[in-house]
Specification:
CATH superfamily: P-loop containing nucleotide triphosphate hydrolases
Radius of gyration: 16 Å
Bound molecules: guanosine-5'-triphosphate, magnesium ion
Number of helices: 5
Number of strands: 7
Shape: globular
Number of domains: 1
CATH class: Alpha Beta
Largest sheet: 7 strands, mixed
CATH topology: Rossmann fold
CATH architecture: 3-Layer(aba) Sandwich
Strand order of the largest sheet: 1-3-4-2-5-6-7
Distance between the termini: 40 Å
Structural class: alpha/beta
Helix content: 25-40%
Amino acid sequence: MSNLPAKDQLGPKVLDAKFLLGVPAVAKMPPPAVPEVAFAGRSNVGKSSLLNTLMQRKGLARTSRTPGCTRALNVFEVQLSVDSIFHFVDLPGYGYAKVSKAERIGWGPMIEDYLRERPSLKALFLLVDARRGAEDDDLQLLEFMAVSRPKETCRVHVVATKLDKIVRAKQKPALEIVKSMAKVPVIGFSSETGVGRDELWTRIEKAVRHAEP
Ligand SMILES: Nc1nc2c(ncn2[C@@H]2O[C@H](COP(=O)(O)OP(=O)(O)OP(=O)(O)O)[C@@H](O)[C@H]2O)c(=O)[nH]1
Ligand SMILES: [Mg+2]
């Protein structure tokens, strides 16, 4: 029996993971040369924490108690094996009212442009707080993806985050509510306990494996 904590036993071994760059517009993204997986969701929902959990690198994606921490398209390069390199993209959080109006207006189009135009985007994971479920702006994003990107070019999944904040007996019913709203596959997740990490990796690997950029 290993003494490793449960979250280190889940998912594939990440050979290397590094922050590549943060850009303020899609036009400044690197050429779409490797498959990409993006993570979207409301401010503070846990996108950067989830990325650190996936990559097993504490602090690589900057997390904060202050909503609105991630304001650019942040690109990470992840390597699972010699022939498997891809990008994770941490998208700016939306729906946070306390940033300046100009900035808030700026986020929507940047995320939309990226999701609509990025040819190397193979999968989108939309994060929602497991306690709150999908809210109006999340549902709008799902609708936007349904009309802008054929399923074959980009799979959409919902991740219900912060599952550790719900008592065990209430976790399943909470996930059922998210499922009924989302109409796409839903994964329960916690960056505190690592639950859901294995399933997320399975879906990510499926999306990027053999994918042409
Ligand atoms: N208990 C618990 N707290 C979490 C979890 N995920 C994130 N948090 C906390 O929630 C806060 C926000 O997390 P971030 O990962 O920075 O959220 P974000 O979605 O990247 O936020 P923005 O960059 O502002 O959009 C931090 O205080 C995290 O420690 C989780 O699974 N469980
Ligand atoms: Mg963030």
